[in-house]
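chain below, 424 aa
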Amino acid sequence: MLFEVYSFRLSLLLALTAAALAAQMHPLQALVEAARTRSQELKRLIAEGPVGLQGRDGAAVWGSDFLFLVESSAPASVSIDQQPALPMMRVPDSNYWYRLMTLRLGTTHNYRYLAGDKQIGVYDVAGYGPDSYPQTGVAKGTLSAMKVHESKVYPGMKANYWVYVNAGADVRNGAPLMVWQDGQDIALKQDSVRLRLQTVTDNLVHRKLIPPMVHVLVQPGSGGEAEGNRMRSIQYDTVSDRYGRYLLEEILPEVEKSYKLRKDAYSRAISGASSGAIAAMNVAWYHTAQFSRVLSHIGSYTALQWKPGLEGGYVVSHKVRREQRKNIRVWLSDGSDDIENFAGSWPLNNIELANALKMKGYDFHFRFGVGSHAIAQGALDLPESLAWLWRDYDPAKTEQTYEMEETERVKPLFRVGIVNRDAW
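prediction:
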């Protein structure tokens, strides 16, 4: 009896100690460690964690450990980088399946989940570098509560937004600004399996590679004129000045009630992925006096909002080629396995835009990998792309004429080739 009591107390002590250690860990690290040790906490950590269980964002990465997770009523397996599928282990008393692997860093990895022969999810994941992890001695920024805005530019539409402020940002006299589309993926725990923007920007501020700034994280709206009340494509994919007016006339004035922002375009950047990327490009194009830095990941420069009398996003590259050169700096990224569908070709249209920027002498950088329509390449590149976008920033200045880097100037135009069939 005494032995049983002692064993119970020891087990309880060990469980409490493990829980205390887990509480001190980053949530992703705790999740990976629970999988490594087959902890009884694994089921709870999966259920409460940020990992998507239907394939998208279905991996947790901590260092070189990649934890792949999916939900399935049937036994599941995972194929990594087009290799043969490997069996996954079931979490007891659940439909969660997992496999912990060690993979190469500094690149992206494609994964495919299967239940039997049926594909149940596919996406890409980044092998993050050190700037995408919390660092000792780095001051953390602060995230606001969610705000709700009712629009007049888009009548009947409501949208959520958050504000993330890096430590040291001068919000009394005026701080640099960066606006991010699809802010719900950055403000909430999903950020840890995607961009890791909060961690990355804090690290880069600490290293003095970017200025401390105010990040406005804007979610697409609902309600209004869209079928099904989902306004994302109307807001983001329409080639016009409307979305920029929405930000400048409605969202940013609300933000400025709490945080003073710099007005000069030199101190303002805007970013997005997919349709959010073309939205960012449109804002800078139509409102160059307010935004001059653009970060575009897997941009949807296609015909998603095309209709008779309304041009689609494919026209952006032609506007760059034909219209007067504007004073903007642009980082583009895409991958050869991005989408081909009724609206167009994501890879080809990103290459079209890169060549247009090249021909007109813009200060731009184009990162073209092999990834699919996923944020993984953008997440992997985020420390580098932000440092490049904000390079040489001087808070004493209010303007700069952007010029193409000499390393880019001497390079040729981008060319494409057929790689998956005979060319003749």
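Residues 1-22 have pLDDT under 50 and may be disordered. The chain is about 30% helix and 25% strand.
thats it, cya
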